[in-house]
Design goal:
- By secondary structure, the chain is mostly beta strands.
- The chain has one domain.
- Helices cover about 5% and strands about 50% of the residues.
- The chain has 1 helix and 10 strands, in the order E-E-E-E-E-E-E-H-E-E-E.
- It has a 4-stranded antiparallel β-sheet, with no helix packed on it. A 4-stranded antiparallel β-sheet has the order 5-6-7-8. The protein has a two-stranded antiparallel sheet with strand order 9-10.
- The longest helix has 7 residues.
């Protein structure tokens, strides 16, 4: 498991070993699970693999599926409001791009070949 502090209240947990979701959002103040999202699978709102990146100066979580070569950007407020029913649009990662991705900010994505 990998933990990312979103703010003083929220923690993102990347859990690759417990189906059906890759990601969990936890409320530290209430010590409770807020929502699970990024469901595993091959459907339109599902992920075959999952890499998540959050920058503390934004309200966005970048999630990439390297196998499907797709990415999506979750708005944290929308995720809190709608939970796992929130499905922001996906974008395609070009096929000439390698398999290692890192986000610097909301407009800069590094892709290593």
């Amino acid at each position: 498991m990998v933990y990312n502090k979103i703010n003083n209240r929220l923690v993102l947990v990347e859990n690759w070993h417990t189906p059906p979701y890759y990601l969990e959002l936890w409320d530290l103040n209430k010590d409770s699970l807020v929502t699970k999202f990024a469901k595993r699978g091959n459907g339109p709102h599902e992920f075959l693999s999952c890499y998540a990146s959050f920058k503390s100066n934004t309200n966005q979580l970048h999630v990439f599926d390297i196998i499907k070569r797709q990415g999506t950007i979750y708005n944290i407020d929308s995720l809190l409001k709608h939970g796992n029913q929130y499905h922001p649009p996906k974008f395609n990662v070009p096929s000439f791009i390698g398999n290692d991705i890192a986000t610097l900010d909301t407009s800069t994505i590094l892709i290593f070949t």
